[in-house]
Every structure is written in C-alpha cells, then in structure tokens.
Amino acid sequence: MTEQNAAPDDGWSFVLVDSLEKVYPDVPPRPFDRTIPMSVFPGETASVQVALRPPMKHDFRLSGALEVAVDGPAAGFTSISQVELVPCSLAAFPEHDGGYDRDTPGLYPDLLRPAPDGLINPLYGQWTAAWIDLVVPSVDHAGDHELGISVRDAEGNTLFSTHICITVVPPQAPELEIVNAHWFHCDGLASHYGVGVFSEEHWSIIDAFMGSAARMGANSLLTPTWTHPLDTAVGGTRLPTQLIGIREDSGYHFDFSKLLRWVGLCAKHDIQYLEIAHLFTQWGAKATPAIYIETAEGLERRFGWDVPSTSSSYRELMAELLPALRSFLAEHWSLDRVIFHISDEPEGAEALAGYQRAKGAVADLLDGLTVVDALSDFEFYSSGAVSNPVVASDAVAPFLAAGVKDLWVYYCVAQDVGVANRFISMPSVRNRVLGHQLFALECAGFLHWGFNFYNTAHSLAPVDPFKDTCAGGAFPGGDAFMVYPGPDGVPWESIRYKVLAQAMWDHRAFSLLAKLAGREEVLALIDTNGSGGSLAMDSFSYDPLHYRRVRELVNQGIAQRVGQTRPRINLSS
Question: Whole-angstrom Cα distance, residue 341 to residue 134?
Fold first, then answer.
C-alpha cells in the first residue's frame, strides 16, 4: 500500500516518500510503500520525506511557510530539514550510461537545510519536500515508535496528516568492520569561513566537520601532517594547512602540538584510522609536497612541485621527520591504525617507474607500516610496487581474478559508467548499493577523495559550494563534497550524505547477521543485481524497494536470533 494525497491541481498535494526518492520540482514523487516495514538500530537514522506542492491555480498566492510537525512519544528524537535545490552545471559526462535521473544542467534536490522550527517554504508551481529524521540513541528506547506527521498552514489549518511506525531493534550494531576513508580538506573550511588556518575559529569548525564525517560513517580521515599534494595544479600550491611545525636550526626540530590536537579530535569523534598526507605529488610521484620550514629568515616553502621526488634534501628531511612522526604516533595513537600514502592515482609505465623511484627513497623509513594507494592500473600491483592497492570500482576485475586479499575500492569523478557513485544527478540507489557491494566482495576498505573539497579542480580558486557543486565545472555535481558549509561553522548535510550513511549501516547489519547465522545467509539475501544475476561492482539493482526490502529481511533475521520478532515480508513482492 502506498500513501499520498492525490489532490486535484486546484488543491494542495502531499505525498509521503522514502529516503531513496529524490523529489524533483516538476515530477510527482514515488509514494512510500507501507508493505515494507521500517526498522533501524539504536543510533541509526530512519528517514522519510513529506513531498508537497501548492495548488496549481493561476490566482493562488502563497501566504507563508508551512509547519511540519511530528508528534508521539518519540517526537523528541526527530529533526526536520527542507530539501533544497542546488545548481548542477555538469550533471553527467557525454557517453554516460542510462542510470542517471537526469543528465542536463539545472537545479537538483540535494541540500538539507535544517528547519528546527519545522517551517518549510513551499514553492509555487513545483514540488519540494520536508526531510524527517528519527534517531533513537540507545537500546533503552528500543521497540515500535508510532510517529504522527502533520502539515499546517500559517493559520493553523491542518492540510495533511499521516503516521508511520518505525521499529528500533534492540541489538547494538557492531562497529563498521572496514576502513571507510573520506578525505578531509581543511583549506576549504578556512577559505569559506574567512578564518586563519588553525586559529581557534578554524579548530572549532574542524571539530564540527569531523563530527559530521563520523556520523556519515567515516572512520578514517586524511590528516594534513603537511599540505595535501592533491588536486593541485602542476607548479601550483594550495592554501597551506600543515599540522607539523618544522624549524631548521643546526638540523630539523619538530613541533607536534597541532597534530596532537588533531589526534585528540579524531579520538573524540571515534575516528579509528589516521591517513598521513601523501609523501609525493599526485599522478606519478614526480615531485615533493609543499612543506614549509621555519628558518632564521622566516617561514619558507622548502619543497613542492619544483623539487623532484628523488631530491637528497627531501630524503634528509624525511630521514628525520618520519622516525619522529612514528614515535609520536606510537605514543599518542596506534601505529597499526595509521595509513601512509606514496602518490595518488599513478597510471602508465612512466608513472610506474617514477612511483618506484619515489617509494625507494622512503621505503626503509616506512618499514612495518601500512602503505596503500589509489590506482586502477593492475601493473602497479603485479609489479610489486603497491602491495595494498585501493582500486577504482570500474577496474577491480583483474585484481579480483588475481585473488588480492583485503582489497580496498574507491570511486570518484571517473567512475561514471556502470558502477556505483554519488553524483547529484544519479538516483540514490546508486549510492545505497555500496554497502551491499563492499560486503559481498569482502572488501577491506573504501575511499573517496572529497568529503568537503570547496575548490575548483586543481585548487586554482575557492568556490562557494551553495552556488557551484561541480568544482568550477570540472566534476559532475556532488563529486567534490558531501556536506555544505552552513553558517557559524556548522556543516549542513545532503541527501547523498544520508544515503551513504545508510549504506554503511547496511554493512554493519550484514556483518551482525553473518556472525549470527553465517555469511552465506546474508549473501542469499543481497546477492542479486535485480535481473537474476549476481551482485557485482558493475551489476546491481536499480529498484529502490529492493534495498528497503533486503534490509528488513536482514533485520528480521537478526531479531529472530536474538529472541525478538519482526513482521515477515516477501522478498519477491
């Protein structure tokens, strides 16, 4: 049974909608299917939407905001946002696949603007939506929660009312068992908010954005021990964000006080892994990162694109810095939860040779540490240059065939055909499926480069992400960031953020059922591409109800094994 208020064009229209539906302004949304129950773990977010459209009458005039209200005993655990449209100048590259909602420039639903007072601004002639979240924080409030949802106009007249039952299952979900790495960019935060790098204002903003990343399911953050040599034009620089103070005075002296503060924030937000900034430049390790040294004459950029990776002066610095960094991390963190990188996305024979030379310059200093790098060229693995590859999702076939253990995967701007991704123009199922895929393929980690990248491509200039979701038109909308920089240093979430969090909770649920009933039982539920074939990186279901149904079957299996009961549903329905 689906629910909607199918009012004529001369009246208000309302539709209850699930979280995998994007409410576009010009199309009635797919209604919520009540035949599939909704359940979550303590601490997990359950989300629904109320889509609404004003009367389609020429003489109708809007008289103000509508109030969306939630009542019931669990109402205090809810929050409301308005789904807002954002500009998307690049929706899809030419020759993309057919799995996009739309492929033309325009305004797309993505931003979730908090509405703590429940006030939602309707838009004349178009659909918009209120996004409602329920998060029950502990098992003490497990059980069925009936939520009443109503919409009232400025005069207090009730225009729409409905209810929904959300069950909080009693078991605590296990922690995410894979590395979920999302690269954190401090420079964009300083630029957007106009604060000094590592000023008190900057630290407060970093704290808020770290917390947001953790709530999305990220458990590994890229740490700017020195400024990330990523997405930086050849010969260019990014706004310096270097945590380690380096002073030259009869040798090098290191100040780890800022790094200690960073580590403390990571611990506060239960971030499990630290990724150290790449030791060499992107796309082949030709040069060194921009590292700043305090000298008697002042602060000096000593390294960068103008210093080759095989420079003896760089080796001299690393020979002192890396052992000191290891000692610091061993004391204040744990070396088995630290990840190092050589160079991001090297490809081709020339890059392979350069990568091997650069790695050779620091290999002895990294002995016994975890080193991983993102790539798609199998030769980097087969040659032994990269022992722990993070493989592009559209390039995994040879790595799987070779039986690579503990495989990580990533996607970014280039993975636009046939695989999962999170572009604004894609349906949400293409984001949600990731949890299924990572579990089915027994991946050890996932990586994405852009939690909050607010620059143009190559960091030539900052952008306002509320006006530019495409990094200056270079990347499909949404590739560069998952959160928007709201006022007062508070991150505002996106639909894509919410759905990726759901994907990680799916993985946690799958892991729990696998412990209780065996991995094969989980695979029997999730291993389908929607057409009778097996789930794969390049083959998956586009049916949003499939993901809701599978998750409920998994939760049902868990509940049965911990002495609870859940309504039975039919996977084939």
Answer: 38
